[in-house]
Design a protein that fits this description.
Blueprint lengths: L1 E8 L3 H11 L9 H8 L7 E8 L2 E15 L2 E13 L14 H13 L6 E5 L2 H9 L3 E4 L5 E4 L2 H4 L4 H24 L4 E4 L25 H5 L4 E5 L5 E5 L8 E7 L4 H16 L4 E4 L6 H9 L3 E2 L5 E6 L20
Parallel strand pairs: 4-5, 11-12
Antiparallel strand pairs: 1-2, 2-3, 3-4, 5-14, 6-14, 7-12, 7-13, 8-9, 9-10, 10-11
Length: 337
């Protein structure tokens, strides 16, 4: 028989081991118990809300609401991010004694307990399959409002595409690498260096009345302590905040960009540096939340292509007067996840 174990608090060693075992195969960052502890016990609030499905004492499913500092005008909020959602394949069609499927039951328990746990709003950045489950619980769908340009990363990753796809992707990757080499001859290189917790975070965005968001400044030390952030700096003064691939070999992603004295040359140097960094990961992603025209032009000049699928955020408000769909999306909704 499958039963649920739901609690609010810091994840202990037993729960950390369960999450490593359940979610680690899907996201290798979570194979590291230290990272799991950092997320679920050492976050800015020191607690999370967890729902585990147990079969004969063995964890077969999990999802958590991770509390993240948010803001709406001068008001500080707590947003709950759904995280580490996993159900063992052999139990994905299993039901609880009350007839609920395990996955739906985990999400339902978190939605039911979210308000009493102190959350003002909930959010998740997922594909349409899990997104549908959120919609069943009243969440609204919000498309990330900027275009992301994508380049090839580690060429070994291309082999996983199979057949004609790998041939086409390899040709695109070869073209991108050739253009990047040319760009390196045309402008001085940018450098990537580690972020220090004492460094100032990217500046906060100006919010319109009634909007809410997540900002790096509100959780800076916690973000930096993941080891997944770095500065990208080019000689004319341009600077970007980057997510490095890390042990999970994620996409190398440019999260925030502030141009220098030579905007196009600096952007070319930045994108070329991102391409080199991306060889350690699945791909290179150039996000452009501010719509910087030189960054967009540089990425296209170096052969990057628009991402095929836009990112979609699912949000739900639990606080009267707060419209969750009035969200100002920033890269810090997903920067280190």
């Amino acid at each position: 028989m499958i039963e649920l174990h739901v609690f609010r608090g810091a994840a202990g060693e037993r729960e950390v081991e369960w999450i490593v075992d359940l979610y680690g195969p899907a996201d290798p960052k979570y194979l590291d118990a230290r990272f799991v502890r950092h997320q679920f016990a050492e976050n800015p609030f020191g607690w999370s809300v967890h729902a585990f499905a147990l079969a004969d004492g063995r964890a077969v499913g999990h999802c958590a609401l991770l509390p993240v500092p948010a803001r709406s005008g001068d008001e500080t909020l707590v947003s709950g991010k759904f995280e580490a959602f996993a159900v063992r394949s052999e139990h994905q069609s299993s039901a609880l004694p009350d007839g609920r499927l395990v996955g739906l039951a985990l999400l339902s328990e978190l939605y039911d307990r979210a308000a009493e746990s102190g959350f003002a709003v909930l959010h998740d950045l997922v594909g349409p399959d899990i997104g549908l489950m959120h919609r069943l619980h009243g969440a609204s769908r919000v498309q990330v409002p900027w275009q992301t340009l994508v380049g090839a990363g580690n060429r070994q990753m291309l082999a996983s595409l199979g057949g004609g796809h790998v041939v086409a992707a390899s040709l695109v990757a070869a073209t991108q690498r050739s253009l990047v080499r040319t760009a390196r001859l045309a402008s001085p290189p940018a450098v990537v260096r580690s972020v220090d917790p004492g460094d100032a975070p990217p500046p906060a965005h100006v919010l319109e009345p009634g909007r809410w968001t997540l900002e790096a400044a509100d959780m800076w030390e916690w973000l930096v302590a993941t080891g997944l952030l770095a500065w990208l700096e080019e000689p004319s003064g341009g600077r970007g905040l980057v997510r490095v691939p890390g042990v999970a070999r994620q996409a190398a992603e440019l999260l925030d960009w502030r141009p220098g004295r030579r905007p196009l040359a600096g952007a070319l140097a930045a994108v070329a540096a991102m391409a080199r960094l991306g060889r350690e990961g699945r791909s290179v992603r150039i996000g452009n939340p501010t719509g910087d025209p030189d960054l967009r032009r540089a990425a296209r000049m170096l052969g990057l292509l628009p991402a095929r699928k836009p990112l979609t955020l699912y949000v739900k408000s639990l606080q009267p007067g707060l419209d969750a769909s009035g969200v100002a999306v920033t890269p810090f909704f997903f920067a280190t996840f």
